[in-house]
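From the methods appendix. Each design record in this collection lists the tokenized structure first, followed by the designed amino acid sequence. Records were kept in a plain field format so they could be parsed without special tools. The example shown here is representative of the layout used throughout.

RECORD:
FOLD TOKENS (244 positions):
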């Protein structure tokens, strides 16, 4: 049975973007270091020397080979392990959404990439492309079904898109909670700092289980679908509580 799309113009903001408040919402943190907030979120401090770095085109040169190593980790995850058919060169995965309009959130420790996610405003434009979910809905992407959303893809400053979300296979089971928690917290805080109230994106369906363990909430906004044996679903996150 097909789901009827709800256009943003016709729907109230409370219907389209409901308040997604987790059972144990973290307090706002006015400090720039995300780790104290993560400690409250998880009830314990992160292990080791785990760091989250947010890169833009302006700050790439301040972090050596971090962006190169992140794009190589994306290739190792999405092309080598998951066998997605994506552009790549010199061992790096990239696409038309890696532009000066995006932000890359990279988790690393002693030079090793442990995870990452890319953020892009839903108001972005680069040639015929905008952002992944909207372009899929418009039929511009062969790899994602055009019915990936229950509603019309938003084009609003208060909504950013998350894509290429991953945690590497090299993260042991006893550390995945810390890595996942820091990744999602930094994603939310980065989007909020950019003026967003919501993050929308495609995530692996299994991520919903550990989101609950992290005390986060997400609303499914599209049907499940499979890309190269990976079951995914579009979800909407409320990040407004991270706004100072």
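DESIGN:
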């Amino acid at each position: 049975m097909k789901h009827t799309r709800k256009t943003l113009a016709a729907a109230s903001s409370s219907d389209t973007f409901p308040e997604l408040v987790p059972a144990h919402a973290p307090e706002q943190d006015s400090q720039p270091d995300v780790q104290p907030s993560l400690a409250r979120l998880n009830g314990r401090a992160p292990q080791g020397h785990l760091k989250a770095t947010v890169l833009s085109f302006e700050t790439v040169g301040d972090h050596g080979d971090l962006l190169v190593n992140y794009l190589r980790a994306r290739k190792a995850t999405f092309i080598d392990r998951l066998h997605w058919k994506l552009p790549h060169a010199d061992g790096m995965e990239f696409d038309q959404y890696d532009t000066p309009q995006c932000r890359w959130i990279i988790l690393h420790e002693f030079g090793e990439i442990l995870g990452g996610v890319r953020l892009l405003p839903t108001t972005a434009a680069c040639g015929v492309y905008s952002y992944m979910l909207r372009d899929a809905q418009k039929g511009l992407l062969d790899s994602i079904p055009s019915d990936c959303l229950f509603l019309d893809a938003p084009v609003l400053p208060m909504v950013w898109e998350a894509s290429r979300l991953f945690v590497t296979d090299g993260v042991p089971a006893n550390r995945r909670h810390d890595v996942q928690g820091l990744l999602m917290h930094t994603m939310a805080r980065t989007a909020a700092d950019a003026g967003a109230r919501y993050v929308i994106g495609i995530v692996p369906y299994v991520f919903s289980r550990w989101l609950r363990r992290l005390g986060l909430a997400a609303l499914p906004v599209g049907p499940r679908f499979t890309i190269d044996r990976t079951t995914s679903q579009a979800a909407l996150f409320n990040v407004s509580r991270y706004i100072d």
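APPENDIX NOTE: The longest helix spans residues 176-193.
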